[in-house]
Write a structure and sequence with these properties.
The structure holds two protein chains of two kinds. Chain A is an alpha/beta fold. Chain A is built from 13 helices and 17 strands. Chain B has four domains: 17-219, Heat Shock Protein 90, CATH 3.30.565.10; 237-305, Helicase, Ruva Protein, domain 3, CATH 1.10.8.50; 321-463, Ribosomal Protein S5, domain 2 (2-Layer Sandwich); 470-510, no CATH class. Chain B is globular. Classes of the chains: A alpha/beta, B alpha+beta.
């Protein structure tokens, strides 16, 4: 079986081959680029995440408005091929600067980012596979997991109190060994450290993942891989507000914006642990009133196909009804240990 | 101490026309340093053009403006007209209202105080006499006379200081005047611009001008056709006022008022006169001098309610679209010109007028402001440039009301465009005594718009064609630049040789529309 690197190089090469072949046949070359317009982003009920529909646009070498884009794509593909072949990576920012030396450059980085996405959808590969890395690191991981990054072995239990930081090149990482039953991802690093200090990794045989807000692409890729390759259930525990819900949902069902790579990023089996509106009531948590913008967002979520499960509908409506939200750290009301000693075990049991 | 009314009116009755205007020079248009000089140019040039045309001569004017001190200028103005017989020289230059009469004729629009007004201004600001050389035929003999004279303001006549006969070779008049309190300017209101515009509207004239810096400008004539002289036409009933009727009644030799009406007004038949008599009950057989003001008012009021044929238009002599184009091409050297002369129309129901317009693009069209070009509007009435009071003028208003975006001009203000509009009429409805702006009569506004929109459509076509030619060139360049680069990169990507691509390049550059019409997103 071909590895990801060979697949990437072949796909990149095929883009050039198609163009050369067209010219040899005296046809004006054109490239089919799947459309990323909102009308072409559809929710796939079976796969439980957003995917691109089958609409596409055609970029023709014979169209004065499109020829530049083709040139940029081909140049970028060449650059990516070089990256993959030499095992290097570059950030989008670096790519933009490199492009300044090309015969067809970009007006600004926004333009090069868009062509990068064009290349992703056209080849059906994530940009990480093409050697283009996001700027930001992924989440922190703590627990009994050993991985290999190039020739370095890393134990996520022995990487300091902040754990192992998921690298943007997560697909180059191999899972060597683990001794856990599950993965719990939490929204804030405050909760991450609480769980480390209360030894949650021992108590629940779990990996602790500190998301640091909205999960980075590398984090989502990591969660999908541990879920599918190591067969570990993934739980997400966030603040009890629409924003916390959605951080969980993007992990579970992917984002609309990245519909073309959701098959690499979404973890449909992941479960939302809390904080739910029911938790707020059942545990009598300290709360803040919902702001107008929270209410608006909750109402938007109700219309979102990703939230069509009965569970979500009930929780969102309940939150709207009580008009309150709560942070995950509000469990400290009952003492610092409460969340690990009482809340999490009860919730995990109920799953 | 109080003064008696009689004492006050002592001064009043002594006031001659010259004395009156000496005290009220702004009424001659002499207000402001720049405007005063422009008005002098206007009066002298207009006179020279009129004189030459009446004599059937192609006008040629030479103007030399010297600056001797800060505000002190010497103007030498020479034309090639028929000249002025010696006996009339001081009458022309020193008497206000010489030969004013009620004439319904298309003219460059003088009140009859043109040249004498300039002499008056010269004398008032410098105290210096005027010098004239007149060259004219008397019988078969060419005569020449040189005169220096002053204006006796109290008597409204000339005072000759020196006079001598001179040898001359051709006809014409040279006038030399000193001025203070005036200023030469290159602005839109200045003397230079006045000349430039005059030549555009009078392409049969040639003007040479030396400005105070010594720079010589030669505005060549663009045509040899001398425009036909306008004919006097009878005024239309709708175009007269009660005062006009009384004026006519006083100066007529007709015995009865009814024959005065039929002989002095156009479209006035005996049937019409009978109708007027029947409706108003005024006895029209009475002597014209017995016509009362109230009766005249009644008649004029009835005119507005009666149906008349439109006024005759035979008296209107437009410049003509071909001549306007020649003038604009000669002076503005533009990329593109479109001109039009509309059919005669009437305003206020009884005054005939013609609107003609031209639009030019590129070259020296537009007014340079720094590096950029602003659109300029050149307004004319009977070929005379109107350079002041543009704000309320019918021409300005008419042009402003046009939606220029519809003609492919996104921002009229900032386009290298000159718009030329001339109104031709026996009776141009000026807004004020300065005669620099035209009353926004609805019919005039409409004609200005129609004329300008028509030529703007031609400009739009030109601009479109130009743009698509540029785009076509740019397109080809895009392909010629990108195709080799893309195929080189694609070959590297595929790990193959660069294919032969001449056919593909020819395909994409020449037949853009068939290929690549993508259905993107």
């Amino acid at each position: 079986m071909m590895n990801r690197k060979d697949i990437a190089v072949n796909k990149l090469k095929s883009l050039g081959e198609r163009i050369i072949e067209d010219v040899n046949r005296m046809n004006v070359p054109s490239i089919k680029v799947p459309s990323r317009g909102t009308s072409n982003i559809v929710y796939d009920e079976e796969r439980r995440y957003y995917v691109l529909g089958d609409r596409y646009g055609r970029r023709s070498l014979g169209n004065v408005k499109q020829i530049k884009k083709i040139g940029q794509m081909v140049y970028m593909a060449n650059f990516c091929k070089g990256l993959v072949e030499t095992g290097k990576t570059a950030t989008l920012r670096e790519l933009y600067y490199v492009s300044e030396g090309w015969d067809i450059d970009f007006g600004d980085q926004q333009e090069s980012n868009i062509v990068g996405e064009d290349l992703e959808v056209t080849l059906g590969m994530t940009r990480e596979d093409l050697g283009l890395m996001p700027e930001e690191d992924g989440a922190s991981v703590y627990g009994k997991l050993t991985i290999q990054e190039d020739d370095v072995e890393i134990n996520a239990l022995k990487s300091g109190k902040s754990g192992y930081t998921i690298s943007p090149t997560i697909d180059g990482v191999d899972f060597v060994d683990h001794d856990v039953q599950r993965v719990i991802a939490v929204e804030t690093m405050g909760m991450f450290h609480r769980m480390v200090q209360e030894k949650a990794y021992d108590k629940f045989d779990t990996l602790i993942v500190g998301l640091k807000g909205q999960a980075a692409r590398a984090t989502r890729r990591f969660l999908k891989r541990v879920n599918e390759e190591l067969n570990l259930p993934v739980y997400v525990c966030n603040d009890g507000d629409p924003w916390g819900f959605h951080i969980a949902m993007v992990i579970i069902s992917g984002s609309a914006k990245l519909a073309h790579v959701n098959h690499e990023l979404a973890t449909p089996n992941a479960k939302f642990l809390g904080v739910t509106a029911s938790d707020i009531i059942n545990y009598d948590l300290p709360t803040d009133p919902l702001k107008d913008i929270d209410v608006l967002r909750l109402k938007e979520l109700l219309k979102d196909p990703r939230y069509r499960d009965e569970f979500w509908k009930v929780e969102i409506k309940k939150m709207l009804k009580i008009g309150k939200k709560a942070e995950q750290q509000s469990f400290s009301k009952y003492g610092l240990e409460y969340v690990v000693d009482t809340y999490l075990p009860e919730k995990l049991d109920a799953m | 101490m109080e003064r008696e009314a009689a004492e006050l009116f002592e001064e009043f009755k002594e006031l001659t026309a010259s004395e009156f205007f000496r005290r009220n020079k702004q009424m001659l248009g002499f207000s402001g340093k720049i405007r005063s000089l422009t008005m002098v140019f206007h009066e002298l040039i207009t006179n020279s053009l009129d004189a030459a045309e009446e004599a059937g001569i192609q006008p040629e004017i030479t103007i030399d403006l010297k600056r001797v001190d800060k505000d002190h200028y010497i103007l030498k103005h020479t034309d090639n007209g028929p000249g002025i017989p010696e006996a009339f020289i001081t009458r022309v230059y020193c008497t206000m209202f010489a030969g004013s009469k009620f004439r319904n004729i298309q003219s460059r629009g003088q009140q009859g105080l043109g040249c004498s007004g300039c002499v008056l201004l010269s004398q008032m600001t410098t105290g210096k006499p005027a010098r004239v050389v007149s060259r004219y035929y008397e019988g078969e003999k060419l005569k020449g006379v040189e005169m220096t004279f002053k204006m006796d303001v109290k008597k409204n006549q000339g005072l000759i200081l020196e006079r001598k006969a001179v040898e001359v070779k051709s006809t014409g008049v040279s006038l030399e005047l000193h001025f203070k309190d005036v200023s030469y300017s290159l602005s839109e209101q200045g003397a230079y611009e006045y000349i430039r515009r005059t030549v555009i509207a009078n392409p049969h004239a040639r003007i040479r001008f030396r400005d105070p810096t010594g720079h010589k400008f030669i505005f060549e004539r663009a045509t040899n056709e001398i425009p036909p002289l306008p004919k006097e036409v009878l005024p239309h009933p709708r175009g007269v006022t009660a005062d006009d009727l009384i004026f006519m009644a006083k100066h007529t030799d007709k015995r009865r008022f009814r024959s005065l009406l039929t002989s002095s007004l156009s479209r006035m038949s005996t049937n019409r006169v009978n109708e007027i008599q029947k409706i108003t009950g005024i006895d029209l057989n009475k002597r014209p001098k017995d016509m009362k003001w109230e009766e005249a008012e009644q008649i004029v009021d009835l005119f507005t309610r009666m149906d008349f044929m439109a006024p005759p238009t035979s008296g209107l002599i437009p410049i003509g679209k071909a001549q306007i184009e020649k003038g604009m091409r000669e002076i503005l050297n533009p990329e593109f010109v479109a001109t039009t002369t509309r059919k005669p129309k009437t305003y206020r129901g009884g005054v005939a007028f013609v609107i003609e317009a031209g639009i030019s693009y590129g070259g020296e069209s537009g007014r340079p402001v720094g590096e950029q070009k602003r659109a300029e509007i050149m307004r004319f009435a009977n070929r005379v440039p109107l350079t002041f009071d543009q704000g309320s003028c019918a021409i300005t208003e008419g042009l402003k009301s046009i939606d220029w975006k519809r003609y492919g001009i996104r921002d009229l203000e900032n386009a290298p465009i000159t718009v030329f509009v001339n109104i031709v009429s026996t009776n141009v409805p000026y807004l004020s005594t300065g005669k620099q702006s035209i009353a926004p009569e609805p019919e005039i506004l409409h004609e200005v718009r129609q004329a300008t929109m028509k030529i703007s459509r031609s400009l739009q076509k030109y601009l479109r064609a130009k743009k698509s030619a540029q785009e076509e060139a740019m397109r080809s360049k895009v392909f010629e630049t990108y195709v080799p680069v893309i195929l080189r990169e694609a070959a590297v990507l595929a790990g193959k040789d660069v294919p032969e691509y001449d056919t593909i390049l020819a395909k994409v550059t020449r037949k853009p529309k068939i290929l690549g019409d993508a259905h993107d997103e």
